[in-house]
């Protein structure tokens, strides 16, 4: 179906897999398919997980990790200069890449995850990360085909480190913002599962906020800054925000597909030129006039990994000040160009 400015497009993943229908459906960007059993199990776990005693949650606090994984208490993260009204757990896929003295600082973000002391939590989340890695890679192949390119065209840009976040938005006064306007910065695409409460809004190309209501058995798929960088900004990252719930708790589970952090903008200009030429250009001047900046498009950073580190340091000032004090001072005074 076609999308208008008041709604998001929807794509049926079963039809996406069907050679007879996938070219038609690939023009759309919202996918009603997910590993149903795993998603259901995660949502069953969330209330109990967030109800853990504070000492158990703080035992895996993000501030203990230079990789920006772990628990973040309510009010400890900032977005668009404002305090987020959410608490969350962050995890990453298993990787053996460990930072060594002399390597760039952004390599430290590839460290191991710590899982909270909750029955079945680690095994369930590792399963979720594995299933979502497979699903996101399959989807990326379809994106290539939709541009009349080989399904493996994006393989050189992929990375083994993906991220998963479990988020709780508590009940707040009317008009409160759960998380302010931002663009996801881990890599290529975000696959967001949300409960039935709602509150997610997306900035349209007309510069207007539109609702992204929950659809049972679906993901919201956001373009991340990494894909925006691959296309030289032609395909902009999805700017979105969450309006805090007023009468109940909201849960969401975003999976962030990673990008090779060693890539530079100069490398992308040459390596992705054939991709950029295939991406349709739309008139989104109104959106750009009110949009938030993208670290990944800024010439201030040596590579995408440094741009991502800057994003994390600013969003989590307690982690930044503990593990990257010099960079925190530098980045907090820096204006993106």
Question: Describe it for me?
Answer:
With 337 residues, the protein is an alpha+beta fold. The protein has twelve helices and twelve strands. The chain is globular, with a radius of gyration of 19 Å. Residues 159-259 form the Fe2OG dioxygenase domain. It comes from Fusarium piperis. One of its GO terms (biological process) is small molecule biosynthetic process.
Query: Tally the helices: what do you get?
Result: 12
Structural class computed from helices and strand pairing: alpha+beta
**Unreliable residue runs:** 1-5, 22-33
Mean pLDDT: 89
The spatial strand order of the largest sheet comes to 1-4-5-12-7-10
- Any idea what the shape is? globular
Strand content: 15-25%
- Give the radius of gyration: 19 Å
The percent of residues in helical segments reads 25-40%
Q: What is the N-to-C order of secondary-structure elements (H for helix, E for strand)? A: HHHHEEEEHEEEEEEHEEHHHHHH
Distance between the termini: 38 Å
Main β-sheet: number of strands, strand sense, barrel status? 6 strands, antiparallel
User: Strand tally, please?
Assistant: 12
Oligomer: single chain
InterPro entries: DIOX_N, IPNS-like_FE2OG_OXY, IPNS-like_sf, Iron_ascorbate_oxido_reductase, Oxoglu/Fe-dep_dioxygenase_dom
Keywords: Iron, Metal-binding, Oxidoreductase
Domain Fe2OG dioxygenase: 159-259
Family: Belongs to the iron/ascorbate-dependent oxidoreductase family.
């Amino acid at each position: 179906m076609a999308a208008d400015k008041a709604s998001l497009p929807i794509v049926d993943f079963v039809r996406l897999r069907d050679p007879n229908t996938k070219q038609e459906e690939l023009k759309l960007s919202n996918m009603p398919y997910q590993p149903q059993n795993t998603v259901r199990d995660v949502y069953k776990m969330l209330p109990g997980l967030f109800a853990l005693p504070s000492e158990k949650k703080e035992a895996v606090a993000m501030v203990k990790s230079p990789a920006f994984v772990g628990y973040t208490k309510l009010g400890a993260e900032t977005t668009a200069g404002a305090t987020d009204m959410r608490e969350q757990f962050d995890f990453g896929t298993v990787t053996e890449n460990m930072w060594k003295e002399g390597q760039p600082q952004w390599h430290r973000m590839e460290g191991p995850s710590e899982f909270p002391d909750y029955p079945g939590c680690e095994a369930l989340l590792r399963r979720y990360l594995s299933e979502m890695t497979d699903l996101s890679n399959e989807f990326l192949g379809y994106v290539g085909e939709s541009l009349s390119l080989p399904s493996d065209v994006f393989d050189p840009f992929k990375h083994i480190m993906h991220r998963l976040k479990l988020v709780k938005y508590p009940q707040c006064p009317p008009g409160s913002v759960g998380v302010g306007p931002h663009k996801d910065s881990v890599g290529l695409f975000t696959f967001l599962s949300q409960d039935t409460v709602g509150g997610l809004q997306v900035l349209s190309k007309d510069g207007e906020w539109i609702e992204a209501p929950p659809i049972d058995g679906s993901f919201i798929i956001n373009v991340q800054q990494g894909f925006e960088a691959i296309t030289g900004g032609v395909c902009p990252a999805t700017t979105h925000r969450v309006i805090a719930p007023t009468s109940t708790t909201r849960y969401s589970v975003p999976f962030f597909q990673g990008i090779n952090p060693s890539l530079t903008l100069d490398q992308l200009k040459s390596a992705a030129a054939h991709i950029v030429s295939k991406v349709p250009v739309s008139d989104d001047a109104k959106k750009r006039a009110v949009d938030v900046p993208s670290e990944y498009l800024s010439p201030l950073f040596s590579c995408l990994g440094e741009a991502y580190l800057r994003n994390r340091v600013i969003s989590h000032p307690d982690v930044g000040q503990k593990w990257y004090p010099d960079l925190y001072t530098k980045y907090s005074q820096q204006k993106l160009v």
